Amino acid sequence: MPQPTVIHVIDDEPVIHEVLGQLLSAEGYEVEISTSGEEALGKLEDREFDLILLDLLMPGLDGLTVLKRIREKNPQATVIIITAYASVESALEAMKSGAYDYVQKPFKHEELLLTIRRALDHRSLRAENTRLREELRGKFSFANIIGKSKTMETVFELIKTAAPSRTTILIQGESGTGKELVARSIHQHSDRSQFPFVTVNSGSLPPELLESLLFGHVKGAFTGAVSNKMGLFEAADRGTIFFDEISALNPETQAKMLRVLQEREFMRLGGTKTVRVDVRIIVATNVDLEDMIRRRTFRDDLFYRLNVIKIELPPLRKRKEDIPLLVKHFLEHYGRENNKTVDGMDEDVWRLLEDYHWPGNIRELENLIERAVVFTKARIIDRTSLPAFHLAPHPPTSVSKFEAALSFKEQLQAFQRQVIVDALHRSRGVQKQAAKLLGLKPTTLNEMIKRLGVETENHY
Fold first, then answer.
1. Which among 415, 425, 413 is positioned nearest to 450, based on CA atoms?
2. What is the pLDDT of residues 222-253, one digit of tens each?
3. pTM above 0.85, yes or no
4. How confident is the model at residue 459 (pLDDT cuts 50, 70, 90)?
5. HSE-up of 158 (CA within 13 Å, CB side)?
6. Burial of 171 by CB count in 10 Å (0-12 exposed, 13-18 middle, 19+ buried)?
7. Mapped to the 3 state alphabet, what secondary structure does the chain carry?
8. Which of 368, 391, 414 is the last residue of a domain?
9. Which of 108, 174, 270, 433 is most buried (CB neighbours < 10 A)?
């Protein structure tokens, strides 16, 4: 049964006690009466109230003094001031000191009740926002970037060191290793956590649209620009902007990005006025930026600005001791989501997970566990709940085993087949994307798939 809302009335006039007691009780509120500031402060030592109605003009401790004492003890307290017409200026002073609102004597009952309802709604919303922030902080806490391996311990220490600073951070790692999770964790543990975290998918838009998205535009800057528009840099002001796959930026956008890093300012597309922002920049990449510099596809001066603190995330195949922890976490998470109790995996499945090379890293493992939880009809997951792709035999990684079983031509074909399978898996079976990953024409890849007998199903 829900607890009643408790309103603390602090006023020295008996008639106010009677009127408010009857009015608020009739609305279902529980009422606590204090006849002086001293009495009220004594009660506030023992309990909290959902709302406080505080008269400004009282003998002894006046309302402003009581309000300041209340705010010192509980900065989140919701207080409505009751004041006479002649002391409206004092009521405004009380608002500056943290009161939610004020009502004047003699007050209309409906006006007072409406103000009370608004104040209680405001209190509930503030409490919900606090809860969500704490939940977000927990979700992206260091503890939930899961791992006990030595490489992950190094990552945790780097995150702890980097989070409080204002420095630009470069996160490097293969797709699916958790780069955005690390970026969000850094943001949540910084002094910018109360402000926006904005993600930019650098490679998902053509250059002209990306620049408009980043910097905004003015009316008439291009066909379709019917009004001024704020960009993501402005939206992230005082917070963090995260560039996923920074390597996809074209040279012109790289130059503008460099200016933002150096000067903390930019101009909207088609504009002439400079816009200043206070934004922390975190970038991620799954390619070697230094190799791109050598090929002159990435600016070296931008790289040096970005590469102040580098966090390298290891692929899952190099931290397989973390797989049991990750599996346990995902089983619990997706068990709750699907209203199922799944206790674990059988030994055969554990062997498959340990032997698999995980080209899609943690994201692939998470997808696999989610699917297994959905399909399993038992509390222990077995092979029948896994997709065919993970049950298919993979080429041995040991040279001696290759030499014992396969000719050179067979080894080469097996290697080609596995590379294609990995690319198909990473592109979720889309051959055009897989060809791009491999640097092949789609027609060439299709011919190789047919020649090598590669299965094109279940790459998800």
1. 413
2. 777 778 888 899 889 899 999 988 988 888 88
3. no
4. very low
5. 20
6. buried
7. CCCCCEEEEECCCHHHHHHHHHHHHHCCCEEEEECCHHHHHHHHHHCCCCEEEEECCCCCCCHHHHHHHHHHHCCCCCEEEEEEHHHHHHHHHHHHCCCCEEEEECCCHHHHHHHHHHHHHHHHHHHHHHHHHHHHHHHCCHHHCCCCCHHHHHHHHHHHHHCCCCCCEEEECCCCCCHHHHHHHHHHCCCCCCCCEEEEECCCCCHHHHHHHHHCECCCCCCCCCCCECCHHHHCCCCEEEEECHHHCCHHHHHHHHHHHHHCEEECECCCCEEECCCEEEEEECCCHHHHHHCCCCCHHHHHHHCCEEEECCCHHHCHHHHHHHHHHHHHHHHHHCCCCCCEECHHHHHHHHHCCCCCHHHHHHHHHHHHHHHCCCCEECHHHCCHHHHCCCCCCCHHHHHHHCCHHHHHHHHHHHHHHHHHHHCCCCHHHHHHHHCCCHHHHHHHHHHHCCCCCCCC
8. 391
9. 174
Same domain, 243 and 333: no
Within a domain: 256: yes
Same domain, residue pair 299 and 151: yes
Give the mean pLDDT of the chain.
84
Q: 35 pLDDT exceeds 90?
A: yes
Are 165 and 234 in a shared domain? yes
- Domain shared by 377 and 440, yes or no: no
Q: Tens of pLDDT along 75-86? A: 888 999 988 765
The answer to whether position 460 is within a domain reads: no
**pLDDT at residue 208 above 80?**
no
Domain count, the chain: 4
Task: Note the pLDDT tens digit of each residue in 393-413.
Answer: 444 444 433 334 445 666 677
